[in-house]
Records
---
Amino acid sequence: METENADVLVTGSAVRVGRAIALRLADEGANIAVHYRTSDEEARETAGEVRERGGEAATVRADLSTVKGARNAVDATVEALGGIDVLVNSASVFYETPVGEVTREDWDHSMNVNLRAPFFATQRAASHGVEKVVNIAGVAAERPYPSYLPYSISKAGVVSLTKGSAKALAPEVTVNAVAPGTVLSPEDRDEEEERRIAEKTPVGRIGEPSDVADTVAFVVRSSDFLNGAVINVDGGRSL
C-alpha cells in the first residue's frame, strides 16, 4: 500500500522502538497517532517531530492493560485522524521475571499488554476498515528467555495471533509480524556482556531501533501478498 497520507496508529510510540517506528513511517508520508500511557511529554515531542517531517499527528492516551483501553486507542485514532489504515502493535512490557518469582500480577501484566491488547486493538481496527496490521513479536517466541518466561510466552502468542488473524481477516486485512532480537541494551548491561552478544550475532553487532523501524516500513509498503509472515530482525542470531 502507499504509505503517503496513510493514517497509522503505533502503540507505545512515545519512546524507544515505537518512537523510531512512528518517525520512520512519518518520513514516508504517513499521519501518526502517537499512543502512550504515562509518557505524556515524550508523546508530545514525538508528535511534534512527526509534524516537522510533514505528517499530521495526534497523541492518544490509553491503558492497554485493559480491553477498553485497547479499543479506545483505535477509536481515538479514528476520531483524531479521520480513519485508520495501518495498526502497528508495538507497545510491550519487558522485565526480568525469574521463574520461581513470577507472580500472578507479573503473568497477567505481560499477557494483557503484550498479547490481549494487540488482539482487541486489531479486532477494533478491522471494524474501522484497517488495511494492514503489523505486530511486534520477538525471537523469544521461538527461543524463550529463561528469566523472562511471561514475556517469551506472550510473544509466542503474538506469533499465533498474527498467523490466525492473517487467515481470519483476509482478504480485507493483511497481518504480519516483525520479530526483533536484541535491540537497545539495558542500562545495567556491562561492556563484556555487550561484546559477547555482538560476537554471537552473525552481523557482529546489537540491533538498533532503526533496524526494526525500517522493517516495519517495508512491511507496510509491501504487496498484500505478504500475509501471515513473521520476519526476524536479529542479525541472524536465531539461525
---
Amino acid sequence: MSTGTHAAPPAAPRQQALAAPRVPPFPIYPISVQKYHEMIQKGILTEDDPVELLEGWIAIKTPRVPAHDTAIDLAEAALRPVLPPGWRVRVQNAITTDDSQPEPDVAVVSGDLRAFAARHPGPADTGLVLEAVESSLDTDRVEKGRIYARAAIPIYWIINLVDRQVEVYSDPDPRSSPPAYRRRETYLPGQTVPLVLKGQAVAQVPAQDLLP
C-alpha cells in the first residue's frame, strides 16, 4: 500500500534549478562513454577514483556515511532472496547508457555471473536501480532520475534516509524535456514495496527492511 500520488509532484524551485546539467562558464570538453572507457583501460582513471560518468561529465561521487552503507547492505539482503531465476543483485557496479556510466548503489540485472565479464549491463539488462540517499537527495531525485529515465530503466528506487521512506519511480518518459518518470509512490515503515521486474510484481519487500 502506498501513501504517495500516482504522478510525480511538480518540482520544487531547487529541483527545477537542477533539471539541466551544470556547465562551467568556460569552454569544456564533454566525455563520451567510449572515451571514458578508454581512460579506464589506460589507467587514467582507476577503481580508487571516486567518480562516475553522468551525461558526459566526470562527476565526483558523494562521500559515504554509515547509514548509507547500511542501507545498501539491507537492500541487498532484502532483494537477493526474493529474485526470480535469471535475476541477480549487483552492488555499486556500473551500468552503461548512451551518455552515462552511473554506479547505482544497487542494481537488479538479468544474466548469470559471467554475463558481464566483457561489458557492463545496459538498460535492456536492468530491471531496477536503487540509490540510498542522505545528503544528495535533490541530485538523486532529479539528476539521477533524469539519467535513468532517459535510458528507459523501468524502475528506480530511492531509499530516502532523511525522511525514512522508500520512493519508487516508474513509467519512464525518455522523450519528455527533461526525461523523467511519470509515476512516483512513497512507502513508509509498516508498508510493503512491490518488487516489479519486466512489468510483473514478483515480491513484496517490507519498507522497514530497507531502512537503517
---
Amino acid sequence: MIYLQLFYTFFIIGLFTFGGGYAMLSLIQNEVVVNHAWVTAREFTDMVAISQMTPGPIGINSATYVGYAVTGNIFGSLLATIAVSLPSFLIILSICKIYSRFKESNIFASLMKTLRPVVIGMIGAAAGILVTDENFIDWTSWALFAAAFIASQWLKMNPILIIILGGAIGWLIY
C-alpha cells in the first residue's frame, strides 16, 4: 500500500509542478512532511541539502531520497523517482508530437509568458519554507551562504571548490 501512495503522491507532484525542482520543493514538503508525515521538518531540511549536493535535478534527488526513507529500500527510491519524472516525460513527449503544428501560434507564446510569474512564485515559496524552518535559522549557516555567494559571484571561484570548502568548513563547525 505504501508503494502505491508513494507513486501516486510523486506522480501528482510531478504532474502539477512547473519550473523544475526548486519549484517542486514546496509541494514535496507539504506532501511528505505535512500530509503524510513520512519525514520530519528537520529530515526534510537535511534532504534538501543532500539533494542539492548530489548531481542531478533537486526534485528527482528529493523523490529518490524520500522513496528510500519511506520504504527503506532501493525499489521505493526507484518508484518515487519514476513517478515524479513520468508526468514530465509524457507531457514533453506529447508537446513534441504537436509542437510542429502550433509553433507559430501566438496563443502558445502567450501561455509560456503567462507561466513565468507562477514559476517564480513557486520557487519563492520553496525558499520561504526553507528560510523560515526552525532548523534553518542559524547564523553560521547564513555566514556560510554569504561566503559561498561572494566566492561565486565576485571572486569567480570554481563551484566545485566552493562546495568542497563549504562542506569542510561545515564539518568543522558542526
---
Amino acid sequence: MIDLIPAGKISAGALQAERMRMDIVANNLANAHSVGQEGSVYQRKVAIFAEQYNDELGGDDLNGLDGVELTEIATDTSRAPTQEYMPFHPEADADGMVLVPNISPLEEMVDMIAATRAYEANLSILRDSRKMADSTIDILKS
C-alpha cells in the first residue's frame, strides 16, 4: 500500500506529545503558588521526548524515523522549594515558614508558547500533507 501522507504519522505523534507538554506546563502553572511542608510541596514537572524508529525501515536513521513520543514526565529536582513567611497558614512550621514550589510563571509561559508553536507547526504539516495527497488523487483520477 502506498502511503500518501508519509509525514502524517510523524506529525500526529508530535501533536500528541506537544498536547501532553502543554498539559504538564498548565499543571505547573496551576501549582506555582501551592504550599506544603517538607516532602509534600509540589515540584515542577518536565516532559521528556524521544525519537521513535520503525525497525522495518532501517533503524536509527531518518529513513526509519517514525515520530516522537513522550517517554517520561520527570520531576525537576534542580530547584529546591523556597520558604515564605506565612505565620497564619495552616501548613506553617513553628517559625511561620511554609514551602512553596520554585516555579517561574514566566519560564512556564515561555514553555507553553514554544509547545503551542510546535503544535501549530505540526498541524500545518498535516494540513499541507493532506492537500498534497488530495491533489495526487485528483491527478490519478484524470
